[in-house]
Amino acid sequence: MALRSPQVSSSSMVYHHRQNTPMRAPPTALMRNLSKSAETLVATTRCGKELKARKVRSTEQAEGSLVKGSSSGGLPMLVKWEDNDSLKSRSRNGSGSSRAASLDRSTQGSNSALSSEEDNINVVVRVRPVNDKERSIREQNMLEFPGKGQIVCQGSAPGQKPKVFSYNVVFEPAATQEDVLEYSGIKRLLEMAVQGFSCTAFCYGQTGSGKTHTLTGPPGLVESGASPFAADHGLVVRSFVYLFQLLRDHPDCHFVLKASFLEIYNEKVMDLLNPGTSRKPLQVRWSKDSRSFYVENLFTVDCEQLDDLFAVLEEGMRNRSVGSHSMNAHSSRSHTVLSVRVRRDESSRDVRCSTHGKINFVDLAGSEMTKRTNSTGKTLEEANNINRSLMVLGYCIAQLSDGRKKGHIPYRDSKLTKLLADSLAGNGVTLMIACISPTKSNFSETLNTLRYAARAKKIKTKPIVKMDARDALILSLQREVQALQAENMHLRTALHVQVDYDGEGYSRRNRGTPQVSANKLYTLPQTELVELVQLHMEENTALRQENTELFVVRDQLLREQELLSRENERLLKKLEDVNSVCTRSPIIPARPAYSDVGSNDANIWTNRTSSTNSVISSNS
Ligand SMILES: Nc1ncnc2c1ncn2[C@@H]1O[C@H](COP(=O)(O)OP(=O)(O)OP(=O)(O)O)[C@@H](O)[C@H]1O
């Protein structure tokens, strides 16, 4: 197994987060599969930890091709998000246990065909508690939670009607970080990332509404190197722990994890794991192969242990741009994207197949009313850039959610939307966590966020599994061969053609594709792989030809059968005519008949009238 067996059960987990142990070099199995242009770089974090990373010219392009609507052993059937009614919102007293079961269903059906059905973006809302400042000025609470994923916003002016919104789940102010892990649906995303899907969880909302708190906890917690089991840790650390649990549950698979962490600051993409002295921005490019945007030359860290993922998070959190304004002392001044790529190598039958899943955690900078945040100078410039990119995001969401409009979606108008394009309307699985504040002074921003979130709920994506082109080809050819063999067998049986089945396959004249074991397939040189693919293609063609011939024979037989039955009908009709003539004649005996049902001579031809006839003749 490329990945070292993780030790993550809450009781047995060993956590070395603050130790200065260097990360392990990438396993040799991985080295072979990386592009030759990749170079290994070593960076040292501020706490002295080595981040050994591979800088690949095009991380996305090296990832192989897409397989739509196909299945491989172990891929999950896509399950629709639960409807609103089945997911109760978290109550103030902390009850909410019934939701776990309904979300967990998504992991079932692991042998079913992978559907390419559309999937709605899952939208949950988290309401932060009233803070000390708001409490000190006795700010009014504007929100009510009637349950069933609903939020009621009281009218801000007298006589104004309350507005009701509904979502998949609503986390009330009393909800804990653990509740968000359990009931937001993030576990499903992680499970799907392990299965090969591209998944994204992003937090959206106004400044100070709790986005960073939801993802990484209170300010400074991650950087302080707190235990991974600290109650305040956000979704990211909790997801890392859950991810390693999932990997441990698949001992038959090889996993390779790679992580990257970037921020979009003033419309420039910066590498948070390799900030360098000059903070040179990275380019966002379009990949023709994967048909998505990617960041060129992004630092990617091989993560063999849970500890490695924590180091990546900690380093990125130290390097991200944070500022202060009147609404948030630790305000994110950039959008950040933390990505963990999960490569899974699995052997099923004779095929070794690799899937490339991904989980992105996106912490968006909050929208700001610059008047309220009293922004000036640098903070004002940051706020303008943040608001501009969020406006483009909002426009894309509005366009995508309107099923009637099929027009242009302006992804290219900002770096943020370029990088989120695939999550919003592409081939990914997406969770949006809309963060809001409950107080009256934030009312209009809260309404805006709730409207955004309601729109996002209507967006559909079409999740697909990413596989290596070679694996995808061999897998699909083998499936086709199997389907054709089954058809062949069926046709031969129907036509009573002799079939010699030897346990491995049917005895065939020209077919002799070698059965290569899973391990051997992996070690085969390129030339032999090409030969194997060619053999499969030849076998395919031969089976197709034979099946076509069998179909022709079957059609001929069907035609003959039809002719025969017509002839039968004609003869029967003739017999009827003869019989009717006979019954009309007093001297000719009537047609033969079956003997009475139930008599001992059932189904034996008798001629009831023949005895009568003999009587008649004797009488005459
Ligand atoms: N659910 C919560 N429980 C307790 N404290 C919270 C909660 N949500 C937010 N806070 C606190 O409120 C403050 C602001 O939250 P946070 O920095 O996460 O907001 P933000 O939406 O990320 O803001 P910005 O967009 O400006 O970065 C922080 O001190 C945070 O710890």
Mean pLDDT: 71
What ligand molecules are bound, each kind once?
A: adenosine-5'-triphosphate
Structural class: alpha+beta
Count up the helices: 16
Task: Point out poorly predicted stretches.
Answer: 1-42, 53-116, 499-511, 591-620
| CATH architecture level-2 label of the domain at 119-467 | 3-Layer(aba) Sandwich
Shape field: elongated
What is the CATH topology classification name of the domain at 119-467? Kinesin
- CATH homologous group name of the domain at 119-467: Kinesin motor domain
Radius of gyration: 34 Å
GO molecular function: ATP binding; microtubule binding; microtubule motor activity
InterPro entries: Kinesin-like_fam, Kinesin_motor_CS, Kinesin_motor_dom, Kinesin_motor_dom_sf, P-loop_NTPase
Family: Belongs to the TRAFAC class myosin-kinesin ATPase superfamily. Kinesin family.
Organism: Danaus plexippus plexippus
Mind explaining what this structure looks like?
One of its GO terms (cellular component) is microtubule. GO terms for molecular function: ATP binding; microtubule binding; microtubule motor activity. Residues 1-13, 104-115 have a biased composition (Polar residues). Among the domains are: 119-467, Kinesin motor domain (Kinesin), CATH 3.40.850.10; 469-498; 520-561. The strands form seven sheets. Strands 1, 2, 5, 9, 10, 11, 12, 15, 18, 19 and 20 form an eleven-stranded mixed beta sheet that branches. Strands 6-7-8 form a three-stranded antiparallel beta sheet, covered by helices on one side. It has a two-stranded antiparallel ribbon with strand order 3-22. Helix 5 (186-195) crosses helix 7 (235-248), helix 7 packs antiparallel against helix 8 and helix 10 (377-401) runs parallel beside helix 11. The radius of gyration is 34 Å and the shape is elongated. Helix content is 36%, strand content 21%. The chain has helices at 28-33, 98-104, 132-136, 177-183, 186-195, 211-216, 235-248, 306-319, 370-373, 377-401, 415-425, 443-456, 469-494, 518-523, 526-584, 608-619; strands spanning 39-44, 50-55, 65-67, 119-120, 122-127, 143-147, 150-153, 163-166, 169-171, 198-205, 254-265, 268-271, 284-287, 292-295, 299-303, 322-325, 328-332, 335-348, 351-363, 428-436, 460-461, 465-467, 593-594, 605-606. The chain has 620 residues and is an alpha+beta fold. Bound molecules: adenosine-5'-triphosphate. Residues 128-129, 131, 205, 207-213, 218-219, 328, 330-332, 365-366, 435 line the site of adenosine-5'-triphosphate (ATP). Adenosine-5'-triphosphate (ATP) is lined by residues 128-129, 131, 205, 207-213, 218-219, 328, 330-332, 365-366, 435.
